[in-house]
Amino acid sequence: MTEVVVYSKPGCCLCDDVKEKLEVLQRTHAFRLRVVNILEDPQAYRKFEEEIPVVFINGKKAFKYYLNEEQFLKKLA
After folding, report:
1. What domains lie within the chain, and their CATH numbers?
2. DSSP 43
3. What is the rounded radius of gyration, in angstroms, for the C-alpha atoms of the chain?
C-alpha cells in the first residue's frame, strides 16, 4: 500500500489544510497516512523547519506548503 507522510507541526494552518485534504482523499483512495510532528522529531525539525507542511509519497518528496489534489492523485496512481 502507498505510504503518504506529512511533516507538520501544531498551530500551522497550512499543515492543517493539507492534513484535512489528505484525510478526505483517504476515504475514497487507498493509501496509508502518517503524520510526523516535527516538534517531536529533532531530525525532522532540522530538515523541515522552514518547509512545512511537506508531503512524501513512498519516500519521495511530492509537495511543499500546499497539496494539489489532482496532482496528488496522479502521483498516487
Report:
1. 3-76 (3.40.30.10)
2. H
3. 12
